[in-house]
Amino acid sequence: MSPSMSKVEIVALCAWGLLASLALAAVTQLALSSSIAQRLERDQLGAVASENSICSRIGIELLKAGGNAADAVSLPSVPVEEAKTDHASSMLGLRSASVGIGGGGFMLIQSSNGSYESVDFRETAPAAAFENMYKGNVNGSVIGGLTRKRYANTLEIIAEKGADVFYTGAMAEAMVAAVQSTNGTMTMADIRNYTVTSSPPLEIDYRGFRVYSCGAPASGAVVLSTLKIVEGFEGFGQQDKLNLSTHCLDEAIRFGFGQ
Questions:
Q1: Is the predicted pLDDT of residue 211 greater than 80, yes or no?
Q2: What backbone torsions phi and psi does residue 163 show, to the nearest 5 degrees?
Q3: For 219-244, what is each residue's pLDDT tens digit?
Q4: Which of 24, 42, 113, 166 is 20 to 30 A distant from 131 in Cα terms?
């Protein structure tokens, strides 16, 4: 981001929860409206942010090596998955439940031609799943079965043979067998029928900026609605009006949820 740019397009990445998205929007607004923006240097590569500095550095090195934003998301999410015991969880709009094998989430992608795409790659329950399937078996909903060594071996196989090996063949059959052995309902058809959906993102004009975000079932609509509300408050985000800005943002969030 550079002060000399006449127009900036801000991509609001919808991650796991609304609070993270709103925090991003609020911090961005405060940075743009204060002297912070004057101290930022323009960087053509971009930025990578996670809760683990090692994972962030991996993403940066990928960008320096010529990779794109998708590369900077995908590969660092592997060590993020491995570092979950250290509470690492987010990576370029991804949350802990959305990284690694079996994760899911939302992603907002800008193509080289300037167009935007909203991708829903959330995890999907097996077709035979039902509302009370975990009643009396709470651990079944939160505990996985891959050790680090098995996880590493799985990733190596996928890297060597391609993504299809995960959805068909021996690997998929082994996963289904493991799940069913613990009274799970997953079938080969569940894995084979998994799909990722793509749709145009939501977008608004906000104080001279173009803001994009993911639509429902992500929180993008609420975030964008909140921004449009606070847009009407004069002086919002200014350092001398921090308390009032906080109050306005709080009320705007309430109304955004109500809509």
A1: yes
A2: -65, -30
A3: 899 999 999 999 988 888 888 888 88
A4: 166
